[in-house]
Amino acid sequence: xxxxxxxxxxxxxxxxxxxxxxxxxxxxxxxxxxxxxxxxxxxxxxxxxxxxxxxxxxxxxxxxxxxxxxxxxxxxxxxxxxxxxxxxxxxxxxxxxxxxxxxxxxxxxxxxxxxxxxxxxxxxxxxxxxxxxxxxxxxxxxxxxxxxxxxxxxxxxxxxxxxxxxxxxxxxxxxxxxxxxxxxxxxxxxxxxxxxxxxxxxxxxxxxxxxxxxxxxxxxxxxxxxxxxxxxxxxxxxxxxxxxxxxxxxxxxxxxxxxxxxxx
Length: 264
Ligand code: PGA
Description:
By secondary structure, the protein is α/β, with parallel strands linked by helices. Strand 2, helix 1 and strand 3 form a beta-alpha-beta unit. The radius of gyration is 17 Å and the shape is globular. The N and C termini lie close together (about 10 Å). It binds 2-phosphoglycolic acid.
């Protein structure tokens, strides 16, 4: 039997300062003491990675340190960019690629998202590839097409032996930071379609193992109804990850729902 453990990520985006980042991670670690059955990662801004990582180590926490972005080249003349080797050196083990703010605010192309995704997985790190449709695309009935295209392009040339380090985050762009959430049924529908694309790429068994998290205005009050959906294996949390107690409530909801059994 194939089971998927829930996975919750806290994407702090361009928020906090050093003191706030330290306070936030201490609150998260304290709130999660003794909790099992769920994987948790936080994604602080680059300048605070070492500070947050040191607190996680000092507390012996299982919370993983993540990066919101990374460049796909090795060391060299790439002003302003941060390499995977640097991130690993700072204790990072999981990296986001293709977040909608990178795609739509910073103008990252599919080609760049693909290069980053490929590089993260090839480097032996974990990758959360984010996909999702804009409001206009949803209104034109293109949700599934957009998700399929972003998954296929993001994973081009990624060999099957590397996808055990892959998580997909389905984040409808119109639901991010807006207070609007996809209905649990809509989220489930999108996740199932994404899993079918993964099955087409890697076979049903591999696809059944890949976690697909939901992102977009997840809060303590709506987490459970999303996470109980068969193919919603946790969430990527933005705004609600900036308050330790709210984030802890969401992680607890995922732990309570527990594993999803893969159905074929
Ligand atoms: P949100 O952000 O929870 O603030 O909507 C989610 C994300 O961008 O990952």
